[in-house]
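CO-FOLDING WORKSHEET

Operator: S.A.
Ligand of interest: flavin-adenine dinucleotide
Run index: 331
Mode: holo prediction, single chain
Checklist:
[x] sequence pasted
[x] SMILES validated
[ ] output reviewed
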Amino acid sequence: MPWNFGRVLTERENPLREPGTWLEPGSAHLDVSMHEWMTGLGLDNETVALGYALNTSYGNDAHDISALMMLARAAFSTAQRRHLPEGVVGYTVRGGAQRIPEAMARALVTEVRFDKAVTGIEDSASEVSVHCADGSLYRGDRVVCAVPFPALRKIGLRPELVGRQAQAVADLPSQPMTQLYFATKSDFWEHDGFAPSLFTDGPAGMVAASRRGEDPERVTGLTAWVMGRNALRLDSVSSERASATVVEEVESVRPAVRGQLEYIGRQSWAADPFAGGGWAYFRPGQITRFGSVMSAPHGRVHFCGEHLARIDRGMEGAMESGERAAEEIIS
Ligand SMILES: Cc1cc2nc3c(=O)[nH]c(=O)nc-3n(C[C@H](O)[C@H](O)[C@H](O)COP(=O)(O)OP(=O)(O)OC[C@H]3O[C@@H](n4cnc5c(N)ncnc54)[C@H](O)[C@@H]3O)c2cc1C
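OUTPUT RECEIVED:
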């Protein structure tokens, strides 16, 4: 199936035995496009377009993403599965993943201050000052800067970053990603006999059933996960127009859905000034250019976030990089 083809292929054909080896110089030959890597396996352009580029989670298409990143991601998934008991495909957090940082915040000695937009970070060599949009100012010995690169681009960092590290902050892309949320007026899947979720090759992207209630089997709504250029197109129109675009497509490919979706709202990560995209990805060649320098401390400023993870991906990557930044400060 299109949504799984690339994942299965990168796990099955993966020359990386362990996650973490992607940053080693010996892996640099894999820092080519997914298109080049997949066609190198003997697949034709149509298969690459169907098997990688359809509503892909990384990049806009198979030319826009480094195969090395996808192989690192696959090595991470394979390694994670080794720790899972037989028959378990993964875990989720009861009440949503937001419960994790909330629990972490409760364990801190000092209170977390919310609603503070950082506009500048200034390192005077003896201390660091953090300036916020509301005029407040914080001083400390060190700063851990945990924002994604699109957000960091808007923060005035003094002294400025230089060389390839500055280039990485300026150039590393973040995944355009928009979600539209729907409630369902009926269990329409009971009528046509298909699974509640569907995957399209149009502007609705992947429309996945959510199961957020007490009963993990019960469908509580549908979420359209729209990636890449289609996400940017939906961001460029009103929320109602975006919803109509998705509903029209879903209804046209699946008649049982007609009149059964109630629009709740839209969330765009690309349009969020504090995110700039769903997650970072590397274009072909960017791992070789930026991988060894992008997380380096800059005076008293240390960097972390999922985009700077060395072994893990996603939330685990964010935590791993946070531990690395803490070790830099302690050591
Ligand atoms: C829809 C979706 C589904 C996902 N699903 C999964 C999943 O199933 N598993 C998984 O492991 N990962 C998943 N991820 C990825 C995961 O959410 C990220 O990898 C993780 O949150 C990254 O953590 P982070 O701390 O690096 O960055 P973030 O969580 O983005 O945190 C950065 C913080 O910096 C703040 N910030 C930015 N700019 C400023 C500023 N100027 N001043 C002050 N604060 C600022 C932001 O508001 C934000 O709170 C998903 C992501 C999305 C969008």
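REVIEW:
The first strand starts at residue 118 and ends at 123.
The radius of gyration is 21 Å.
[x] output reviewed
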